[in-house]
Amino acid sequence: MTVRFTPRELDVMGALWEHGPSTAAEVRAALEDELAYNTVLTVLRILEEKGHVTHTEEGRAHRYRALVERAEAGDSALRRVTRKLFGGSPELVLTRLVEDEDLGEDELRRMRDLLARRLEAMEDES
């Protein structure tokens, strides 16, 4: 399933993934930028219409929770970025990541180890 979020929807989903089930007021407080309560509520309702969140009633408030896992959204977004920005080449994505000067030695070593494990698994399958 392809999951697509607008930037604002992704902000709201990020708050739900980070903090778990939340009211609109809690989501609003978790966001880095100042949004009107009604804006947050509108985005939550749109996400619910799309089937990405659901809610339970808590008195007069609704507590929203994500139905889409962060990893699922990340996989979908990564495939889209790979296709649109890197011509469908995972190698170009990896090259860009490795050339990022903000990466530390530990991160690069972990990436190398991940690649080595993946290669070993592929060799074991053949």
| Count of individual domains | 2
* Tally of alpha and pi helices: 6
Overall pLDDT confidence: 92
Tell me, what is the CATH class of the largest domain? Mainly Alpha
Which homologous superfamily in CATH is the superfamily of the largest domain?
Winged helix-like DNA-binding domain superfamily/Winged helix DNA-binding domain
Choose one word for the global shape.
elongated
Strand content: 5-15%
End-to-end gap: 29 Å
CATH architecture of the largest domain: Orthogonal Bundle
Biggest sheet statistics? 3 strands, antiparallel
Task: Catalogue the unreliable spans.
Answer: none
How helix-rich are the residues, as a percent range? 55-70%
> What kind of oligomer do you see?
single chain
Indicate the structural class. mainly alpha
The whole-angstrom Rg is: 19 Å
Q: What's the CATH topology name of the largest domain? A: Arc Repressor Mutant, subunit A
Widest β-sheet, arrangement of strands: 1-3-2
